Amino acid sequence: MAVIMMRLDKYLADMGVGTRTEIKKYVRRGKVKVDGVVVKSPEVKVDPNVQKVSYLDQPVSYEKFEYYMLNKPAGVISATTDKKDKTVIDLITEKKRKDLFPVGRLDKDTEGLLLITNDGELAHRLLAPKKHVDKVYYAKVKGKVTEEDVKAFAEGVSIGQGEMAKPATLEILVSDEISEIRLTIQEGKFHQVKRMFISVGKEVVYLKRLSMGSLVLDENLPLGAYRPLTREELEQLC
Ligand code: URA
């Protein structure tokens, strides 16, 4: 295991114990121990893989990366901060790291699977168009979805503003006044699913993401709830 030494105040700030300024005060006041011994210099270097850090005698373990599966509810936005609306990051109440972000964006009214992490490399692998990662959506659509729509989506449709959607797999679950479908796409253009249906003259009235690559929404997670990824989920994604 590579030895990566880091400053004690950065270690504690990364783990959400406080701001760097607050932490410096805590350390100088003797509230922090390293391997059971009070350390009063915030600049002391520690090895997170080996040394045990505690704050007010509570162990603070170091996590470089955090990974959460969120069942995003409608009404919250896929951003890290917002002046007006609640964000998906606000929903992760037990987070340690301050640098979490959502992997890709779901519209404010879209529900379902959202991966929240601070692992930029993994996010890139899941989002880069060249990686062709499947994203599967369930939708309710106004009007009868037809086999013609299936063919059009399989060929690729024009979604306006000079953009084309790449070939996608559309499965009709119910074809009625309000149809129900499952759609698999490998891109993540702005409002992509809604724009694909607009291109065939139909309107998405409900949208939920079911999966992203190997990661499948845990149906036991109520809307707005989250949980850390399991080891298996993480291994498959990586
Ligand atoms: N496509 C959309 O139109 N909206 C989403 O939130 C995700 C995909």
Can you describe this structure?
Strand 8 and strand 9 (111-117) form a beta hairpin. Helix content is 20%, strand content 28%. The chain is elongated, with a radius of gyration of 22 Å. With 238 residues, it is α+β, with helices and mostly antiparallel strands. Helix 1 crosses helix 2. The structure holds uracil. Uracil binds next to helix 5.
CATH topology descriptor of the largest domain: Alpha-Beta Plaits
| CATH uppermost class of the largest domain | Alpha Beta
Number of strands: 15
Order of helices and strands: EHHEEEEEEEEHEHEEHEEEH
Major sheet summary line? 9 strands, mixed
Strand content: 25-35%
Total of helices: 6
Given helix and strand content, the structural type is alpha+beta
Stretches with pLDDT under 50, minimum 5 residues: none
Determine the N-to-C terminus distance: 19 Å
Brief digest:
The chain has 238 residues and is of the alpha+beta class.
Main features:
6 helices; Alpha-Beta Plaits; binds uracil; four-stranded antiparallel β-sheet; Structural Genomics Hypothetical 15.5 Kd Protein In mrcA-pckA Intergenic Region, Chain A; alpha+beta; 238 residues
SSE diagram, text form:
Blueprint: E1 6-7, H1 8-14, H2 20-28, E2 32-34, E3 37-38, E4 45-46, E5 53-55, E6 58-59, E7 67-72, E8 101-102, E9 111-117, H3 120-127, E10 135-142, H4 147-155, E11 169-174, E12 178-185, H5 192-199, E13 203-212, E14 215-216, E15 226-228, H6 231-237
Parallel strand pairs: 9-13
Antiparallel strand pairs: 1-4, 2-3, 2-5, 5-6, 7-9, 7-15, 8-9, 10-12, 10-13, 11-12, 13-14
Helix pairs in contact: 1-2
The structure holds uracil (URA).
